[in-house]
Amino acid sequence: MADLPNIGPRPLRHIRRNTTLTRLLPLVFILSFHAIAAGQETAPAAMPAQQAVAEMKLPDGFGATVFAAEPDVVQPIAMTIDTRGRLWVVECTSYPDWQDIGVDEGKDRVLIFEDTDGDGRHDRRTVFLDNGRNLSGIEVGFGGVYLCSSPDLIFIPDADGDDIPDGPAETLLSGFSLKMKHNVFNGLHWGPDGWLYGMHGILDVSQVTNPSKPDQPPVPMTCGVWRFHPTEKVFEPYCAGSTNPWGIDWNSVGQAFFTNCVIEHVFHAIPGARFKRMFGNDLNPNTFTLMDSCADHIHWAGGYWNVSIGGKHDDAGGGHAHCGAMIYQGDNWPEKYRDKLYTINIHGRRMNCDRLIASPDGYVASHDADFMQSVDPFFRGVEMKYGPDGTVYVLDWNDTGECHDFVDIHVETGRIFKIAYGTPRQWSGDLNALPDDQLLELQNHENAWFMQTARRVLQHRVATQPDNKQLASKIVQAYRDVPLENSRLKLRMLWLTAACGLADRSILQEAARGDINLQAWATRLASEDASIAAGRIQTANQSAGLLLQEQVAAAIRRDDASIENITPELVANIADEKLRKRLLQLMWYAIEPRFNAETLQQDPAAIQSLSQQYAAFEPPILAHCISQKLAAIDAHDLVLTVAASAQCPPASRESLISGLLEALRGRSIDAPQAWSEARDSLLDGSIQSNRLGYELALIFGDASARKQLAAALTGEAEDAQNAFDLLVQYSDADTAAVVQQGLKLRSLRTQALRALGNVELPDTAAELIADFGNLPADQQTALIDAMVTRNSYAKRLLSAIENKQVPETVLTTFAVGQLSRLKDKAVQDQLRKIYGTVTATDATRNRQIDQMKRMLTEDAIAGADLHAGKQVFVQKCATCHKLLNEGGTIGPDLTGGQRKSVEYFLENVISPNTLVPMAYKMSTIETIDGRVLAGVIESQDGQRVVLQTPKEKITLAKDDIEEITATGVSLMPEGLLDDLTHQQIIDLSAYFQSDFTPVQ
């Protein structure tokens, strides 16, 4: 075995302390700490553990005990329960300064707690390990302990079960990133299939290596779920997406759900799924579409992470930070609590509850009443787990910080609570000591802990006794003896055979004749066995609902089985639009590898047939994705051929062209051969209704289509406006003339004024600036938008402002910021002469905030005009932000922010760059032809950049870009309130804080 990577240069050290504890020590410690903290106004006080549990809010009939607390446990981050019912806990004192594997000495510990008298409090504590490093997850089994110890997954052997390591740790996996901060890999749990599952956050991409398979290249892993087989030593990503997943569990029919911190809180962990992310792109550039959460609700009302606490968020569920997942299947809590998903809401200091509602089409997680709430301000729950007595352990990290708070860390506190209904029965024993027959009987136990633990013991015995044919025969016969009608036990026995490597074709074929859950698992397990996947498993009901079909779609990524059973008619019958979309997305992830350049070259007819087959599904998600993938391998001809075929539904035709455009927009390429046949059908009718076709024509350099667009400039207004936009977007030598023509036409004048930024027309710009006072307001705005993008225009504009020909108040704060980014000394000198220093100092901002706080009193807000406030919001904010379901989506939705707070309103409006989320940081792009554009880069690849400005989305070819500069500042400009009267600021603030929705 390899040296223990998380122990450091000193020898592995084990400390065994079996002690009978007094109840006074933790309380005395806490009271002392409480007294010290009370003397410092800035330091929050830790609540004594006994007081915290006494004031914990629970449903009637439930009670809680302090199972353990500091100093016996600090910073508990993960736990598991062994075959004797003992609680194993990881203390992570490494956080937030993860320790360097080659330098730092490990200090994290693994503790074992026992409650020998059944009073809900531990009375025996053993230190299994005291020099672990970066520990964040734990599981037991197979004669030892598995630990997440970044950058490694390690296994510490303890085959004799004496709680003393038998030797150094074995490195099972390596390469998990140490740059993850609070997003480290975590959450070890055994799945029903016998694999060890874990999770990984979004802040970095790990390159996971497998020491047992040195010839295999590293496997990239980002946010999502992964798994590792304990005997075959195989690692694989399981599903991708979310932000910082921290908690996974399986319901009674083996469907996995994982919880997530930030964005939606729960996802149905279907193998091969690609879920939405907080930011960044999926590792597969050909994913194109990401699945949503299965939840029909969120536990917060919007806003940034550090303000989504309290107030309105309490009604929703407490906040958006979640940790831990437990689907209760114990036998102590009443039946009404069973098979529901529980997760800790960190901001809300409570335990949220979701009902997992199954339909033939899939799962929906629906909001249920919160189960528990803590009044302890230090409560930071991280995990829940039920044990052999059916009660639930809750780990409390117990600290003041959460999420991104790395500064004020209290390493001296930590609690473990135990929640029970009534008086639980005490259990003692050791499943590892039971004979095989009794372990088989436990597969039918009401408390799933016994079923799961007995399965793991049997899996270990089969793996370590390969010549014991009798045990294998017993397990197979036990499966055979259960009738299909007993679906619950049959499914459990199917998992046992799979975990033990005994699920052959005959077993899976029998399961495939059972209910939908047996069919789903039979299909999935068959797809994971290469010897079985080649010959398909025939399910009893080929349209038995999409719980099965999701497994089919996920299975296709592993083998060549067809998905003919998933027909357009079947998908069309799914009433829930969200579930229908989810299935189609899974289908795309499954079939995407089939659309590849090699097959296209060798058998283009096969690719065309697949394209036509899947383009028929509606909604046309598959059509859109197929066209993007085909465009990526330069199969433009094939997309056009499929789109032009009579069998292609109109919605799919539009999606095929839309997908092709998404891949090609910003580029200029020669027209493919099929364009001559497809163009007539794509350009048949008005320009407005065929805008996508005309845009494609311009990309292909279709001169005839360009002439048609030029001719349309003097036609119907809507066609003229669409034609003008396209001609300017895809410019050529005649674009300046097009802009000048637009300036002469009333229906195009505003568009043409804004389009001045695309061309260099200094004399025309000078004439327009001279006539500025006579322009309507919308045309003045459009002209200003163009004038701030080029040095030559900016000089004329600033000269006009300096000479009082144009009022200086016409420039918005964003426009002034845009001018400040032009790299021309004369422009900057003019700008400073007129406006002074563009960026306010912190002292200036603070003075502004203090002044306005005094103005925005409760009486002033109460007397505000909400109608007028809404008008100011529409003028100043609604372009980018949504409030009360009205406004744009460029910036965050403001409805759920801490908007009832005057301080929050002022700090974010006056000083928007104090906290800028990654998704809203601005960049400046200089084009080769002299324009300077500012906005948020929405996406980019090797050929183009998509820039979102406050006014529009612009796609630029990389070849047309001189330089891209990341500014690190917010798209939201400073000085937003500078040109408002006091009353307008009061009205805006009042509307911002209100729930005002005027009758239309």
Automatic annotation (TrEMBL):
An MF annotation (GO) of this entry: electron transfer activity
Full protein name: Cytochrome c
Residue stretches making up the Cytochrome c domain: 864-996
Look up the signal peptide feature and give its range. Answer: none
Taxonomy, superkingdom? Bacteria
Q: Which InterPro entries match?
A: 6-blade_b-propeller_TolB-like, Cyt_c-like_dom, Cyt_c-like_dom_sf, DUF7133, Haem-bd_dom_put, Membrane-bound_put_N, Quinoprot_gluc/sorb_DH_b-prop
NCBIfam families recorded for this chain? CxxCH_TIGR02603 (TIGR02603), Piru_Ver_Nterm (TIGR02604)
What parts of the sequence cross the membrane? 21-39
List the Pfam families hit by this protein, alphabetically: DUF7133
Q: Which UniProt keywords apply?
A: Heme, Iron, Membrane, Metal-binding, Transmembrane, Transmembrane helix
